[in-house]
Write a structure and sequence with these properties.
By secondary structure, this protein is α+β, with helices and mostly antiparallel strands. It contains five helices and six strands. A hairpin with a 6-residue loop joins strand 3 and strand 4.
């Protein structure tokens, strides 16, 4: 998958590789997630909790309509992005499906880690009767 990410222009590639590392590190540090499966879905690098079935798929890609932006995509039929908007109103969003980031700016790592952990444990939390927050 790294080869797919490296096919982008350098600033985009750098940000996507940083997001990849953040996703993998967050999965390792989050109880109940287990190993992630890294694959391509809709041409985007995607992360699935295939082993534990604990979470919703997370995808990363360049924003097609903006040369200087990348996005972390989430399943649009979850309440994840709605929850992220409540928790982190200063982040930029695309509808109910993505957190949008400028490739030239530093990643908001603490907020992203929390959002990723919520996504990677989405089904686990729902099975336990909790609203994802």
């Amino acid at each position: 998958m790294a080869a797919v990410l490296e096919s982008h222009p350098k600033p985009i590639e750098s940000k996507l590789l940083a997001l990849r590392k953040l996703i993998l590190d967050t999965a390792r540090a989050t109880e109940g997630v287990g190993a992630l499966q890294e694959t391509l879905k809709w041409g985007q690098v995607s992360y699935l909790t295939s082993e534990s079935k604990s979470g919703s798929t997370v995808r990363i890609d360049r924003v097609k309509s903006a040369d200087d932006q990348v996005a972390v995509y989430f399943h649009c039929q979850t309440n994840l992005v709605e929850t992220f908007r409540e928790l982190y109103p200063k982040l930029s969003y695309s509808g109910n499906r993505a957190i949008v980031l400028d490739a030239s700016r530093k990643l908001p790592e603490a907020a992203l880690r929390h959002c990723l952990a919520l996504a990677l444990t989405y089904h686990l939390a729902r099975r336990n009767g909790a609203r994802v927050k």
